[in-house]
């Protein structure tokens, strides 16, 4: 996959899957505009990959809109930023629920709106990949707000796929299983819980960030020109187990 001459916006580019996506895109010739939160990551992205990096808290709707407008124009968009907080359903707080929906669901909508508006105005095609999770398909204990936020993101992906395709813009979702990143440390550091999850993955391992990044880049690329509106698990077979 050749991304020479293409500009790609990547949210959540500072760590984990997003950072690996940036590395792969730059390796394949893309110009990346990274949107992420921590100042140290912004500096590291600029230094290591020579990309444009914009610091933003995606939980802030106005700041998110401002950041994406500053990032435009772009050929492609990857909504990768995500966050989680573990709480049993009965103890899920309104505050945590709102925080997760703001970052995992509302921010991808705002970013995609501005990205798509700019392409439509210029009459150019594009593609969006939203990084969801297997948690949008199944109920994972202690992940009520996270599962709900990713389910909401899937709904957005499907509507984008229908409404934007006539403008030449595709939208797809990628659904990783547990992937070895800082987020996985937060969610899966209990060895008993991790072992239970691992048992349900037929390939017998958790994902590496590169496993996810390859699929994201494929769905973004012209090789996937006829793929629109899908929710693709990247889960080693977890969903069929
Ligand atoms: P990480 O926590 O490792 O990295 C997430 C990145 O998103 C960080 O750079 C983080 O910045 C950024 N981010 C989070 N919140 C905000 C915010 N409010 N504003 C701006 N940037 C923000 O996560 P992963 O790489 O593991 O996850 C990437 C995506 O994959 C997420 O959408 C996640 O839900 C999904 N996913 C991950 C799985 C896993 O097991 N790892 C499994 C399934 C799906 P900072 O650190 O500065 O806050």
UniProtKB/TrEMBL annotation:
Keyword entries, A-Z: NADP
Gene3D superfamilies given in the database record: NAD(P)-binding Rossmann-like Domain
Residue ranges constituting the Ketoreductase domain according to the UniProt record: 6-175
Highest rank taxon of the organism: Bacteria
InterPro entries the record matches: KR_dom (IPR057326), L-xylulose/Carbonyl_redctase (IPR051737), NAD(P)-bd_dom_sf (IPR036291), Sc_DH/Rdtase_CS (IPR020904), SDR_fam (IPR002347)
Description of how the protein assembles with itself and partners: Homotetramer.
Sequence similarity: Belongs to the short-chain dehydrogenases/reductases (SDR) family.
Protein name as catalogued: SDR family oxidoreductase
Species of provenance: Rhizobium indicum
């Amino acid at each position: 996959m050749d991304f020479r001459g293409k500009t790609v916006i990547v949210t959540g580019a500072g760590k984990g899957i997003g950072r690996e996506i940036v590395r792969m895109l730059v390796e394949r010739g893309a110009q990346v505009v990274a949107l992420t939160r921590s100042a140290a990551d912004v500096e590291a992205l600029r230094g290591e990959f020579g990309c444009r990096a914009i610091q933003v808290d995606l939980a802030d709707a106005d700041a998110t809109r401002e950041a994406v407008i500053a990032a435009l124009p772009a050929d492609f968009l990857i909504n990768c930023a995500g966050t989680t907080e573990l709480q049993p359903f009965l103890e899920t707080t309104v505050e945590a629920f709102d925080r997760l929906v703001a970052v995992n669901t509302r921010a991808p909508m705002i970013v995609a709106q501005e990205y798509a508006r700019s392409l439509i105005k210029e009459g150019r095609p594009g593609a969006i990949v939203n990084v969801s999770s297997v948690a949008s398909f199944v109920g994972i204990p202690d992940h009520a707000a996270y599962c709900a936020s990713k389910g909401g993101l899937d709904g957005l992906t499907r509507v984008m796929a229908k409404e934007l395709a006539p403008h030449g813009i595709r939208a797809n979702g990628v659904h990783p299983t547990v992937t070895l990143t800082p987020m996985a440390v937060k969610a899966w550091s209990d060895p008993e819980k991790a072992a239970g999850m691992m048992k349900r993955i037929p390939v017998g391992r958790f994902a590496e960030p590169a496993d996810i990044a390859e699929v994201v880049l494929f769905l973004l690329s012209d090789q996937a020109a006829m793929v629109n509106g899908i929710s693709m698990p990247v889960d080693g077979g977890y969903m069929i187990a």
